[in-house]
């Protein structure tokens, strides 16, 4: 029996031939081939020489072994993992845990530190017994206000619960190997540590210890995540333009943006367990592509606005806009071939046609029909949309799917001629916050 592909991208309804004037002309995608080949070649070289770190992360098996060993050691006898992070330091891990956590093994996982709302922190303290909790504070520098302020409070409450000397056995710091405030604290207090790689930015760090440690503590097979990532990455690097799904995804979005003014990118999984994938992608796409200047220093003001949606839920909130609103959106659905669990419907009212037609149908079958119907309606209304298909939700497919989206983002940045790996607009806001809170050396 042939092995199933971890994913494939059906882009036919992104084309003018299917949806009319709002779609991309096939000839324009062909004419973009040379630029797509150039972007692919650049990433292939970066994977070979290690100059773009996230491309080589799946081969860093020593990090994976360290993560699994520490997860087993630190979680023994405990019930809850509390991950303290923000942005790239928690969105990837949230996505993995939401999508893949087994029901019957691993620690319960809670996330905090992405917002300094005191009521959220109070809710955590009311519902989690810190005596049986493991804190994982994630910050490369230790200078990010939201997670560090949260950590300072939770550390204090943990010490009150278990004692000053014992608390260090329940803290793991994921941070820079050698420098930064959190590294200094970890060394001083004797906390176990995991590295944030120097060559991997936060929003590309999901398959580093940043995302793998919470996943391992949750009972997820992290080796499977890396296998799926390698398969999709290697397929991207070896598949020619025209048959390369990530190149097609990026090329179509670039042409829609540049030629049709389609500045909104919607990601809409038809699977509740993939809902946080859209939030992770929102940061990846938005921060990587939204740039005032290009790599040559010219002002360009590029960027596509990412929108997170969920099927079938948002058929009843956003789809009206997508069908009849402005032609400024490109929509990507994610369809899952097989659900981990499913149910067939009974037929208690055979005389009522309004419900009896559902008899024998499974929820998965209904969900796939809803996705198809939504796509068909959009196509009839001339709205560009594509579908990412995965056979199931598993560590391999999720690792592959997230790698696909990172590759597509990197190619899109090459087409826009912007730096995918910086975020000067974020850094400016951080400096202003520090000044407002009276940090020494920071001025408004």
Automatic annotation (TrEMBL):
Q: Which reaction does it catalyse?
A: alpha-D-glucose 6-phosphate = beta-D-fructose 6-phosphate
Q: Which InterPro entries match?
A: G6P_Isomerase (IPR001672), Phosphoglucose_isomerase_CS (IPR018189), SIS_dom_sf (IPR046348), SIS_PGI_1 (IPR035476), SIS_PGI_2 (IPR035482)
Statement: the UniProt record of this protein carries the keyword Aminoacyl-tRNA synthetase: no
Q: In which pathway does it act?
A: Carbohydrate degradation; glycolysis; D-glyceraldehyde 3-phosphate and glycerone phosphate from D-glucose: step 2/4; Carbohydrate biosynthesis; gluconeogenesis
Q: Which SUPFAM superfamilies match?
A: SIS domain
Q: Which Pfam families match?
A: PGI
Q: Where in the cell is it found?
A: Cytoplasm
**Cellular-component GO terms for this entry:** cytosol
Establish whether keyword DNA-binding is in the entry: no
Q: Which domain of life is it from?
A: Bacteria
| Recorded family membership | Belongs to the GPI family.
Question: This chain belongs to which protein, by name?
Answer: Glucose-6-phosphate isomerase
Q: Please name the source species.
A: Candidatus Uhrbacteria bacterium CG_4_10_14_0_8_um_filter_58_22
Task: Name the gene that codes for it.
Answer: pgi
